[in-house]
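Need residues for this backbone.
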């Protein structure tokens, strides 16, 4: 097989691609959808990198995946949103543990975010 033939094979969309995209549309994550069609979880990512029609179809589907919505945006913005949620809950309840749980933030992370890790323990004079 010469180089031109190999390139042609790369441009073809494999048979599992459409069932994989249908699984994504149904709300499955990439790992579960890949398992559903019998390919390794990295295989769809490799195809997405080199196959433009597959990539475009996948990009149209992504908003359906709720996990993608929760994690959308730069990491710093997601962390800021969680910290804001935590502070709102803390102001409402005055309960650090409950506010952390409501904001989906671990207490360890809050200690690292606060000055000198003092957020979860009272100040001493």
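Answer:
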């Amino acid at each position: 097989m010469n180089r031109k033939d190999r390139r042609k094979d790369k441009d073809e969309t494999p048979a599992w691609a459409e069932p994989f995209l249908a699984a994504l549309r149904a709300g499955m994550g990439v790992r579960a959808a890949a398992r559903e069609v019998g390919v390794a979880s990295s295989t769809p990512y490799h195809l997405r990198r080199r196959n433009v029609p597959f990539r475009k179809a996948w990009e149209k589907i992504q908003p359906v995946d709720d996990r993608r919505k929760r994690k959308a945006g730069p990491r710093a913005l997601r962390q800021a949103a969680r910290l804001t949620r935590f502070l709102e809950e803390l102001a409402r309840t005055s309960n650090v543990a409950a506010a952390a749980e409501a904001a989906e933030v671990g207490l360890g992370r809050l200690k690292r975010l606060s000055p000198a890790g003092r957020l979860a323990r009272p100040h001493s004079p």
